[in-house]
């Protein structure tokens, strides 16, 4: 189950990378259309504003079609082989899923006309009741259906991936063998996906209310709720399951529900991006939406963890400083600019529970302080890019200066605490590791890093699957007992996580994509 959830979390990150980039463009567009920042003269330039309007239209199209993007991403991420076929089947499945629900709704006289606010008010409902009823439905790819948002896409992706892995290599009798193998996957998807649609027609109204109720509880918890989220999000980092927690607050009612221009908008990130596209967004609503977004990460990602890197460098052995300087500098730079923190975190979370718990509590405190200070900085990463685009450039209303002040305090506290604990408890952070007698350590060879990693993993015969996410090389092996961790760390890995007897993850940071390709080439494993 843990391996499955980690694969699911990794597959959810594929559309997130697009959203993060699109969000930056949307943020810049919002700045360039704000007369308080760029002046009335610039805003009045018709041609420039038309280009900006075009950018907004593109970004809006991405945000508006997130459910199908998640359906495709989950199907690809969980498919064992023939991933292109899984993606194709996911598109078919997503369309037919909503066609099924739309058809059943129409049979019960539930459509866009009967559920409009005006029609419901005319039938006797109050304005509030009518708005709540109408918000339970939406149009997806032109089909009137239940409002399930990203959750519906994830469900379809899971269904298609399950069907795909069961049937992509099926062999049919000779007379119909043409329809066997990967061709059978879209066919069986077409036959079975209406069952999922029928199931969700009955289940979703109850499940949706339950999720929305949970979101109401979290929202009602106020600052303690954001503290718990921030601490738990960091505590889940070693397992990789923090990705799932993040998606829950970004795209489900757990992260909030808002009515914007008469349309129900669900999830913290969706609400923020929708408001960002408004000419005059509701600042209070935006502050509420950003409670679980980038603002809570900036103090420890931009300031705290780089300071921790400096503390680890200062406490490293004199003869090791040159070796660890490059590693820690690259890790600190990644955290500072983009909010990718795992190369730093995996340098201490397994060797010092005290530092790990401290880091998690400081993360929770960061989210809580940003909530209490009514900061309004959105997006997903939490690095200096988000601070600049969604904070500084949008003006003082975002209260970005409070983030910087808190961040400076975080840098001081992180440096002093890390330095004290590392020295007092002799923590084996980079540059302080004890030499293990008899364990062979492979010298880092950039030119042949793929082959070096393969050998450290136990050779070609020990490798079954190779994959990667933003920062981790994810592997399924015959046995993890054959892995040489010291040799992997000598290739530049920040840490190694043994998930089970056959699954392992190696933390390389943002450069993992290129490393994964080299390892696949050296292991002679191709993407199927």
Keywords:
528 residues; alpha+beta; Gyrase A, domain 2; four-stranded antiparallel beta sheet; two-stranded antiparallel ribbon; 23 helices; 61% helix; 7% strand
Structure, described:
The chain has 528 residues and is an alpha+beta fold. Among the domains are: 291-424, no CATH class; 446-523, Glucose permease domain IIB (Gyrase A, domain 2, 2-Layer Sandwich). 61% of the residues lie in helices and 7% in strands. The protein has 23 helices and 8 strands. The strands form 3 sheets. A 4-stranded antiparallel sheet has the order 5-6-8-7. A two-stranded antiparallel ribbon has the order 1-2. The chain has a two-stranded antiparallel sheet with strand order 3-4. Strand 7 (495-498) and strand 8 (503-507) form a beta hairpin. It is globular.
């Amino acid at each position: 189950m843990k391996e499955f959830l980690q694969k699911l979390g990794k597959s959810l990150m594929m559309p997130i990378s697009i959203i993060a980039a699109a969000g930056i463009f949307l943020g810049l567009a919002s700045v360039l259309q704000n007369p308080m920042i760029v002046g009335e003269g610039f805003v009045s330039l018709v041609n420039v504003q038309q280009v900006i309007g075009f950018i907004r239209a593109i970004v809006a199209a991405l945000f508006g079609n997130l459910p199908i993007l998640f359906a495709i991403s989950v199907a690809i991420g969980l498919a064992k082989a023939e991933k292109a076929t899984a993606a194709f089947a996911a598109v078919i499945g997503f369309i037919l899923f909503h066609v099924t629900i739309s058809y059943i709704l129409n049979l019960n006289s539930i459509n866009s006309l009967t559920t409009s606010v005006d029609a419901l008010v005319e039938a006797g409902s109050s304005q509030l009741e009518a708005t709540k009823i109408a918000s339970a439905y939406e149009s997806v790819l032109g089909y009137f259906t239940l409002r399930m948002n990203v959750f519906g896409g994830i469900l379809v992706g899971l269904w298609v991936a399950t069907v795909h892995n069961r049937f992509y290599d099926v062999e049919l009798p000779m007379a119909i063998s043409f329809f066997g193998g990967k061709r059978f996957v879209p066919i069986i998807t077409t036959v079975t996906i209406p069952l999922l649609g029928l199931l969700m027609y009955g289940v979703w109204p109850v499940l949706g209310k339950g999720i929305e109720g949970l979101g109401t509880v979290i929202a009602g918890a106020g600052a303690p709720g954001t503290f718990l989220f921030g601490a738990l999000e960091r505590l889940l980092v070693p397992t990789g399951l923090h990705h799932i927690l993040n998606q829950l607050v970004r795209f489900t009612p757990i992260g909030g529900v808002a009515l914007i221009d008469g349309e129900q908008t669900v999830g913290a990130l969706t609400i923020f991006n929708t408001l960002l596209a408004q000419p005059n967004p509701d600042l209070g609503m935006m502050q509420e939406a950003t409670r679980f977004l980038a603002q809570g990460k900036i103090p420890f990602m931009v300031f705290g963890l780089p300071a921790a890197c400096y503390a680890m460098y200062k406490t490293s052995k004199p003869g090791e400083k040159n070796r660890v300087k490059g590693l820690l500098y690259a890790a600190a730079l990644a955290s500072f600019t983009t909010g990718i923190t795992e190369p730093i975190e995996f340098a201490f979370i397994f060797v010092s529970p005290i530092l790990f718990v401290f880091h998690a509590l400081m993360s929770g405190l960061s989210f809580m302080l940003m909530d209490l200070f009514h900061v309004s900085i959105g997006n997903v990463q939490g690095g200096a890019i988000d601070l600049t685009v969604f904070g500084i450039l949008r003006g003082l209303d975002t209260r970005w200066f409070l983030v910087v002040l808190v961040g400076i305090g975080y840098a001081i506290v992180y440096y002093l605490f890390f330095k004290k604990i590392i020295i007092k408890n002799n923590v084996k952070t980079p540059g302080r590791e004890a030499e293990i007698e008899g364990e062979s350590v492979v010298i880092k060879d950039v030119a042949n890093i793929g082959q070096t990693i393969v050998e450290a993993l136990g050779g070609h015969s020990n490798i079954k699957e190779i994959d990667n996410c933003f920062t981790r090389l994810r592997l399924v092996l015959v046995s993890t007992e054959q892995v040489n961790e010291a040799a992997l760390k000598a290739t530049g890995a920040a840490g190694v996580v043994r998930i089970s007897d056959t699954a392992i993850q190696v933390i390389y940071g943002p450069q993992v994509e290129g490393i994964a390709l080299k390892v696949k080439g050296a292991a002679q494993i191709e993407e199927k």
